[in-house]
Write a structure and sequence with these properties.
With 384 residues, the protein is an alpha/beta fold. Helix content is 47%, strand content 11%. The protein contains 14 helices and 8 strands. A 6-stranded parallel β-sheet has the order 1-8-5-4-2-3. Strands 6-7 form a two-stranded antiparallel sheet. The two termini are 37 Å apart.
């Protein structure tokens, strides 16, 4: 296990009715920017709960944040923060709203162009305090210090992070999940799963504590997936376990001391930027290819994954690895996602375009940079 430092300061307010406690977490004199997406929170009752909790505050609303939030949208919100002298930013929605809000909070305290955070790698040293009311579990953005921002005009999508971007608090009320569309459930089930394996299924040594934690969370998802995707009503307990599993998937706990992968996410960001696919859709397509093409480098961890997560213990080593890849792909299919580029009308052209992007940037991805541009090409071509 490598040396590491760990801190996660986010306060979780978990359970039904916790939205009402938001006011106790924000300074009574704060001017609040309330951010949200396309308006689903107004249809499912969350908006009214939030407004009631903030009835004694000056609240300025900013809606319309997209899935894969766009820089141009966040720029408008940043200008609004500066003009209205906003003191606190509250995100209500899923990972995209939370990510956008982090970018807004940082941009509001920066004199230059906020795109500098990704294009020039300007360090984010200051941000407005922010909170998150999570209504769509997947990214764990409510309990980490990172996010992803897109720029559609240039077909780019980049990650960003800073210690100052941890939310001050996050509210997780499982009842807010009852009205989620199946497509968003599917994307979430895939995203959480791949978050876990990007930290776990690597070339590095075995980490007893974090490996067991990741394996347990992966088994949670496998068990919960049929319940969440069925047409019958999902119980409160299952929704609660799903929501907490999502938060634990990328809040730093399972990645402590590990050399992490993230190649699939980096490839997926490019596919989303070019073709507009949902983030979860790209992961479902790409991750089985990453497992297959990188099997030699990840050989020992793949065997551990096969045995501990899928209970595959019989057959040759290669047979067990093949079965583990097949089981993973079938999990994505059962969740409701397609697993081939061709399922979305995409072919070898996009595989070559993504690989050429990485080649032109001159850097490799994955743990220890083992995924070269040519490996990116090979992985994506295997998913056509």
């Amino acid at each position: 296990m490598r040396k590491f430092e760990f801190q996660n300061p986010v306060k979780l307010l978990f359970g039904e009715g916790q939205i009402s406690k938001v006011s106790s977490e924000i300074d009574s004199k704060a001017r609040i920017l309330l951010t949200y997406g396309g308006g689903s929170i107004k249809r499912n009752g969350v908006y009214n709960q939030v407004k009631e909790a903030l009835r004694d505050y000056k609240v300025i609303e900013f809606g319309g944040i997209e899935a894969n939030p766009d820089y141009s949208t966040t720029k408008k919100a940043i200008d609004l923060c500066k003009n209205e002298k906003i003191d606190f930013v509250l995100a209500v929605g899923g990972g995209s709203v939370s990510d956008a809000t982090k970018f807004i909070a940082a941009g509001a305290c920066y004199e230059g162009d906020s795109w500098d955070f990704v294009s020039k790698k300007v360090t984010i040293t200051k941000a407005l305090p922010l909170g998150v009311i999570m209504t769509m579990p997947a990214t764990s953005s409510e309990m980490n210090n990172g996010g992803v921002i897109s720029r559609r005009e240039t077909k780019e999508k980049w990650p960003f992070s800073s210690p100052v971007l941890f939310p001050k608090f996050a509210v997780l009320d499982p009842t807010t999940l009852r009205t989620l569309p199946k497509r968003q459930i599917a994307n979430g089930l895939v995203d959480i799963y791949v978050h876990l394996v990007e930290q776990y299924l690597t070339t590095t040594d075995h980490y007893m504590a974090t490996d067991r934690l990741a394996e347990g969370l992966l088994q949670n998802l496998i068990e919960l997936s049929p319940k969440l995707t069925s047409d019958s009503k999902t119980s409160y307990e299952d929704l609660a376990n799903y929501m907490l599993t999502a938060t634990l998937g990328l809040n730093g706990w399972t990645g402590m001391g590990a050399l992490q992968d993230w190649a699939t996410h980096m490839m997926g960001h490019e596919v989303t930027a070019i073709a507009g696919l949902d983030h979860g859709q790209t992961l479902a397509i790409i991750y089985p290819g990453t497992m297959d093409i990188m099997r030699d480098a990840k050989h020992d961890k793949l065997l551990q994954y096969a045995a501990r997560v899928w209970n595959i213990t019989e057959g040759s080593e290669e047979e067990r690895i093949n079965q583990a890849i097949e089981k993973t792909e079938q999990y994505f299919i059962n969740a409701g996602c397609k697993v081939r580029l061709s399922d979305y009308g995409l072919g070898k052209e996009i595989a070559n375009e993504v690989a050429d992007r990485f080649k032109s940037r001159g850097y490799n991805i994955g743990e220890n940079g083992i995924v070269t541009a040519e490996k990116v090409r090979e992985i994506l071509l295997s998913r056509v």
